[in-house]
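Project outcomes to date are best conveyed with an example. Our students and postdoctoral researchers have been running inverse folding experiments weekly, and each run begins with a structure described purely in tokens. The record below, which covers 274 residues, was selected by the lab manager from last quarter's runs and is presented without edits.
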């Protein structure tokens, strides 16, 4: 007895443990019976089990949340890839539509449809330029494999761009009409009897002169290719912005704004003879 008095805490814990064993034993023997002791034992066991069960459920929920989060991330990545793919398809469709519109424009403007039966069209991207602010000389990503050769004519939806200087497999170098080395004969669209010659002025525009000093050309006149030389007839070249008389040459000289915008060429079309 003295030992029990000296170890009161241990005695209490031991007593509670023994009572729990008895209660659990009785409850086990009366499984399914609604006895007072059975119900009490169930409550005790439930209280003991609850923290462990809650912790297990928390772990399960956490794992489930992590797995669901990873699944959502994977789905988002798939959606991003699909959206990027659709955007690429949309861009390609728009480019194709732009090429068709470009050809329709060229075939309907200024009698240009007369050229169509004699040529096929090769559309190409501009992939390099000579480093200046203007596209005097540039390279495209189509060449001899597509039938492009020296002096093939280059155009876009706005009009005449220039001609091919040289070509190889997968590339061709183009000299544009704004280059000083490139000369083009033209007609005045308002009066097709009026002829002249033009070339680049070295500043991104065109300069030219009329073959007939008496030619009644005026500011605002539209110039088109004459059909003489390598360029087919009827391709828009530019608009006259200034007319002057040159006393030295006794010729009427012109300042001309090109139809095409030579600071931002991205796609061009090459005329390949059939």
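After processing, the design step wrote out the following sequence:
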């Amino acid at each position: 007895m003295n030992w029990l008095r000296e170890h009161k805490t241990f005695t209490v814990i031991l007593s509670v443990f023994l009572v729990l064993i008895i209660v659990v034993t009785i409850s086990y023997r009366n499984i399914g019976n609604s006895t007072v002791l059975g119900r009490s034992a169930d409550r005790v066991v439930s209280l003991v089990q609850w923290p462990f069960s809650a912790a297990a459920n928390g772990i399960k929920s956490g794992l489930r949340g992590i797995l669901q989060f990873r699944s959502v991330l994977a789905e988002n990545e798939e959606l991003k890839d699909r959206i990027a793919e659709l955007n690429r398809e949309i861009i390609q469709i728009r480019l194709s539509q732009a090429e068709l519109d470009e050809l329709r424009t060229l075939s309907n403007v200024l009698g240009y449809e007369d050229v169509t039966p004699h040529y096929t069209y090769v559309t190409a991207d501009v992939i390099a330029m000579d480093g200046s602010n203007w596209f005097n000389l540039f390279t495209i990503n189509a060449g001899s494999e597509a039938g492009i050769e020296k002096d093939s004519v280059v155009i876009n939806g706005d009009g005449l761009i220039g001609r091919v200087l040289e070509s190889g497999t997968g590339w061709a170098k183009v000299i544009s009409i704004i280059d000083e080395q490139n000369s083009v004969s033209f007609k005045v669209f308002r009066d097709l009897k009026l002829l002249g010659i033009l070339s680049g002025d070295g500043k991104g525009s065109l300069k030219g002169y009329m073959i007939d000093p008496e030619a009644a050309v005026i500011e605002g006149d539209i110039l088109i290719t004459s059909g003489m030389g390598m360029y087919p007839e009827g391709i828009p070249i530019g608009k006259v912005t200034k007319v002057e008389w040159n006393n030295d040459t006794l010729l009427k000289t012109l300042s001309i704004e090109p139809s095409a915008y030579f600071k931002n060429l991205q796609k061009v079309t090459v005329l390949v003879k059939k």
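The chain has a mean pLDDT of 76. The chain has two domains: 1-108, 119-274. The training component of this project remains on track.
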